[in-house]
Specification:
This protein has about 260 residues and is mainly beta. The chain has one domain (about 5-255). The protein is built from one helix and 18 strands. Strands 4, 7, 8, 9, 10, 14, 15, 17 and 18 form a nine-stranded mixed β-sheet that branches. A hairpin with a 6-residue loop joins strand 2 (about 45-55) and strand 3 (about 60). Residues about 1-25 have low confidence and may be disordered.
Length: about 260
């Protein structure tokens, strides 16, 4: 076989492998924060739900019982509380500026078997296809009143997307630089982004890129609207008799005017 043909085959194989890797990392369920208003007036309250699925933003909702923790970081202390099994409301925002909302889902097992999925480890189960232990984290950027500020707050989540510019200061065509941390260290891997209204298809994103060795990447804001960025990582679970992989997911939502 000619060297040129071998080269073309290698390129085709590499392209296929990258496509499959990116599709796999983008296809699982993930959570995100939905806000009724990403730019509320001073004195307003934040109303939110936590989305759950793989069709942003048209999917299901995460129930209160599945949420491990929620907090707000910003110019003043703001409390969050559930007003129903799905809906969260904040106290009144007294100071204008940038607030970062963070939340985590309770870590847990999910095992896929030939008979269906079970929220347990694979111990004692038959016909196991794959088991994962998931850590899921989400953040949202809120610019309240007429003020904006730094949005690079680090929440300390197991995996976290940090905007290095305030999305409220960007417009269509600008690039949003971000940094992704995994257990507090720079994460090098795939990054996906999309915006509300882009697609209703499963696991379909408008933009894909990868972070460098410093955990940094830039995403072009293709259109005004509410955006979501997603990162994910898997590593072998410490005990193969219990589960196969430990998975980590982080999402960030914000609005571009």
């Amino acid at each position: 076989m000619k060297k040129s043909n071998i080269y073309k085959l290698l390129l085709s194989a590499l392209s296929l492998c990258l496509t499959l890797m990116m599709a796999t990392s983008a296809s699982a369920h993930y959570p995100w924060i939905n806000l009724s208003d990403y730019t509320p007036d001073k004195g307003a309250v934040i109303q939110m739900t936590i989305g759950w699925g793989h069709r942003y933003p048209l999917a299901g909702f995460m129930e209160k019982s599945a949420v491990e923790a929620m907090k707000v970081s910003g110019p003043e202390a703001v409390e969050l509380e559930y007003v129903s099994d799905l809906e969260v409301r904040s106290g009144s925002i007294g100071k204008p500026g940038t607030y970062i909302i963070g939340a985590t889902r309770r870590p847990g097992f999910y095992t896929k078997t030939a008979q269906g999925g079970k929220r347990t480890s694979k111990e004692g189960l038959e016909n196991v296809i794959r088991c994962s232990f998931s850590h899921m984290c989400m953040k949202a950027v809120v610019n309240a009143g007429s003020g904006t500020g730094k949005a690079d707050t680090v929440m300390g989540h197991p995996m976290e997307i940090i905007p290095l510019k305030n999305p409220g200061e960007l417009r269509q065509g600008d690039y949003l630089p971000v940094r992704v941390l995994y257990k507090g260290k720079p994460y090098k891997g795939n990054l996906f982004a999309t915006y509300a209204g882009f697609s209703t298809e499963k696991s379909t994103f408008a933009y894909a890129t990868a972070t460098d060795k410093k955990g940094r990447a830039s995403i072009r804001m293709l259109t005004p609207g509410v955006w979501l960025i997603k990162a994910g990582h898997e590593q072998p679970y410490p005990d193969k008799d219990v589960c196969d992989v430990a998975s980590y997911v982080a999402t960030l939502t914000f609005e571009i005017k």
